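Lab manual, section 2.4: Encoding a predicted structure.

Procedure: take the sequence of the chain (294 residues), apply the prediction step described in section 2.3, and record the output as structure tokens. A sample record is shown.
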Amino acid sequence: MNRVTFRITASILYLISLLPFPVLYFFSDILYIFLYYIVKYRRKVVLNNLLNSFPEKSRSEIEQIEKRFYHYLADLMLESVKTISISAKEIKKRFVFKNLEILKTYLQDGRSVIAVSGHYGNWEWGPVAIGLELTEKVLVVYKPLSDKRFEGLLNSMRSRFGSVMVPMKLTLRKVIEYKNEPNVLVLVGDQTPTREESQYFTNFLNQQTAVFLGVEKIAFKLKNPIVYFSINRIKRGYYECLVKSLIDNPEDTKEHEITDAHTKELEKNICFQPEYWLWSHKRWKFSPENLKND
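Recorded output:
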């Protein structure tokens, strides 16, 4: 995206972000029709992912989940744009943390914490909201984009209330920088590894699934406790993030125990309300069989 195009796009997004929520959701309903019925955005990917994940469900049940997912995807896109200008008061009202004392107790004891979540619910509001709840530094790890201007826009949105955005490959360097003060390191644990990084497969949504071992490797190095951020959508535009204690002493765990633990937590969320996970992502690119045949 060239500079002129980016400035025009950024200006349009800012103006959209100023719209009140009722108007925003009116446009979201239109966007849903556009995504699902007109451009049919990744319809084959979504349908295949759902069919493979829920073999026990009928075709009509799968199609209902599919439609609800696209409706929510439209909401998520416009809620994310709203992040550009949303006030601190508004985000605290719409994204509420439960059991945050679990995390605060670790921090008060001088222990830094690793917080894991997935692409479920409004994960974009999480980094924004958590910065308002803690006085300690919140380090949010992200996967860099090829378009650096757009990446800068996203990071400025996510860090509006104090969170520090950290490129994935610089995670340990940034953690070392803050090693003398308790902090929270936020990681999204359900991204797809590259072929070279697909070293471990676990059963996830009825399929052998390649998972990143990054959370586990970082936890072993830092020996920090791990919590899980379980995001639930209460109603349109309102979320509750339940903080769950996952692993207190990573050094006492077995290999892959941490990875399996946070993957299972995400799976519970998905099975309860499947429409709020990112089904349009090409999550199952590799299998143990096709890697062996390479």
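Check your result against the sample. The chain has one domain: 3-292.
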